[in-house]
Amino acid sequence: MSHPRADALDSLEHLACKLDAVAALMTTEPTNLGENEVFGLNLIINQAAGEIRRAKGKLEKLYPAN
């Protein structure tokens, strides 16, 4: 049986990893976007992934594993 804390932390990390993957694809796969748009979206995606990881870190400090 999984623990709600572990599930929540895993979900946050999974979401951050998906954002990382999208950012990586945007720089390697052709799109209809211009270079500036790709750069801007990558910046936003990377910032969102960073915020998710910071939230995960705060949760780990607030609710340490027993």
Explain how this protein is built.
The protein is mostly helical and 66 residues long. The protein has one domain (4-62). The protein is 80% helix and 0% strand. The chain has helices at 4-28, 35-62. Helix 1 (4-28) runs antiparallel to helix 2.
Specify the biggest β-sheet: none
Q: How many helices in DSSP terms? A: 2
Uncertain segments? none
Give me the secondary-structure category.
Answer: mainly alpha
Mean pLDDT: 88
Strand % is under 5%
Shape: elongated
In summary, what is this structure?
The protein has helices at residues 4-28, 35-62. It is an all-alpha fold and 66 residues long. Helix 1 (4-28) runs antiparallel to helix 2 (35-62).
Could you give the topology of this structure?
Layout (H helix, E strand, L loop, with lengths): L3 H25 L6 H28 L4
Helix pairs in contact: 1-2
